[in-house]
Backbone:
């Protein structure tokens, strides 16, 4: 784990071992790799928490700023591609799942939408923060609003969604009034604060 100082790593593991009873130690020895992975998972959780905390701290102190330098490439070659749909920014757009198709078909049908683009994971635009987040779609409206849309199935109410939503909303706040970020669930029965139900999102985007 190169991103953790060796001395800090030893101290943390030593604290774990110091609190293990003789009986627990026997269990560890009988299933060594299982407990190694549990410790590793916990360390990664702590690292993620630290990254997130430091990221927002450095934003507040002004050490992290938003830098508007990204541009769309002239040509993309997504594989596989989706079926042709009106108002697509490129001739070929990346493939989508069933819910993503429902969302983008309705977005494309709105009178105030000028164009949309299926953002390509690992190759397209991303929010560079305590995580790297590639939103599913980028949409432009007639009023000049640029909207990032992240679609989620209603079963995806995990910490990954929370982190993406928190980062996306912070990006929109820093980017200014021309920009928006929305996380969209089919019914949003997850209870994730700040996310939108699909029908509510559609009513909203009509006015942007």
Residues:
């Amino acid at each position: 784990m190169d991103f953790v100082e060796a001395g800090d790593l030893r101290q943390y593991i030593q604290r774990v071992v110091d609190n293990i009873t003789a009986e627990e130690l026997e269990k560890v020895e009988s299933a060594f790799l299982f407990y190694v992975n549990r410790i590793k998972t916990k360390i990664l959780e702590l690292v993620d928490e630290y990254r997130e905390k430091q990221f927002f701290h450095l934003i507040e102190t002004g050490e992290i700023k938003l830098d508007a330098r990204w541009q769309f490439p002239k040509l993309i070659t997504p594989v596989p591609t989706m079926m042709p749909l009106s108002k697509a920014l490129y001739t070929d757009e990346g493939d989508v799942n069933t819910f993503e198709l429902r969302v983008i078909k309705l977005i494309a049908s709105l009178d105030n939408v000028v164009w949309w683009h299926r953002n390509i994971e690992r190759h397209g635009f991303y929010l560079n923060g305590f995580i790297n987040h590639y939103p599913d779609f980028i949409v432009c409206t007639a009023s000049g609003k640029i909207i990032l849309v992240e679609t989620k199935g209603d079963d995806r109410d995990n910490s990954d969604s929370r982190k993406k939503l928190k980062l996306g909303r912070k990006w929109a706040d820093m980017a200014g009034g021309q920009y928006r970020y929305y996380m969209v669930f089919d019914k949003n029965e997850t209870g994730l604060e700040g996310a939108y139900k699909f029908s509510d999102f559609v009513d909203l985007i009509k006015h942007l």
User: Anything to note?
Assistant: Helices lie at 6-18, 22-30, 32-60, 98-109, 159-175, 198-205.
